[in-house]
Amino acid sequence: MIDLSVLILAGGGSSRLGVCKQMIQYHDKTLIQNACYKASQLSKSVTVVTGAYHHRVEAEISHLPVDILFNENWESGVASSLSVAVKRQFNSDRILIMYCDQPFIPLDHYRSLIDLSNKEHKAIVATEYDDIFTIPAIFPHHLFYELTTTESDDPAADIINKHRSELRSISCQKAAFSVDTAADMMSLKK
């Protein structure tokens, strides 16, 4: 059994942005490379779920120590990508779920989530900002089935809210930022 696996959700079509957000440059890396770099420092078991732009994303990260999983039903939404990824990592005790489009979240925040999860092994350990509990978050094994069967537009948030009594959180205001618009893309260059 693997103690902790990391899932990077990187399969969206970037419809609001109009370009492949996974390939946007942030400092000296693309967003997907940045996410893979952080994730590979947290676990030896890292899975990147692709969908739209699969071939471009795969070519960008094929040399990195990550597994690449193509979700052919990516247009169905995040729930579909989450389901195929969790099924792939069902032999893990816990799964850290992260997006590829939140480059401002520091590596130390992910490590803090893991540290708290190590102490509270059966709890959901989520990121909090402005009283919102969200990804990045660590889910314990007993919630994997729910992660694979929910059909919500925001499955992780729904499960977090449903299991509030099992929730622990760490604040990170930088999690409020994700790359979704041209203005967000410009923020990366500052």
What this model shows, in words?
With 190 residues, this protein is α/β, with parallel strands linked by helices. It has a single domain (2-187), classed as Spore Coat Polysaccharide Biosynthesis Protein SpsA, Chain A, CATH 3.90.550. The chain is 33% helix and 26% strand. It has helices spanning 31-40, 54-61, 78-88, 107-119, 144-149, 155-162, 182-187, and strands at 2-10, 25-26, 29-30, 46-50, 67-70, 92-99, 124-129, 132-140, 167-171. The protein has a 7-stranded mixed β-sheet with strand order 5-4-1-6-8-7-9, sandwiched between helices. Strand 2 and strand 3 form a beta hairpin. It is globular. The termini are far apart. The model has no long low-confidence stretch (mean pLDDT 91). One of its GO terms (molecular function) is nucleotidyltransferase activity. It comes from Pleionea mediterranea. Keywords: Magnesium, Nucleotidyltransferase, Transferase. Pfam families: NTP_transf_3.
Beta-strand fraction estimate = 25-35%
Number of strands: 9
Structural Rg:
15 Å
- Largest sheet entry: 7 strands, mixed
Biggest sheet: strand arrangement = 5-4-1-6-8-7-9
> Whole-number average pLDDT?
91
Question: First CA to last CA: what distance?
Answer: 42 Å
CATH domain class name: Alpha Beta
What's the architecture in CATH terms?
A: Alpha-Beta Complex
Outline: globular
Helix content: 25-40%
Compute the number of helices. Answer: 7
Number of domains: 1
Structural class: alpha/beta
CATH fold field value: Spore Coat Polysaccharide Biosynthesis Protein SpsA, Chain A
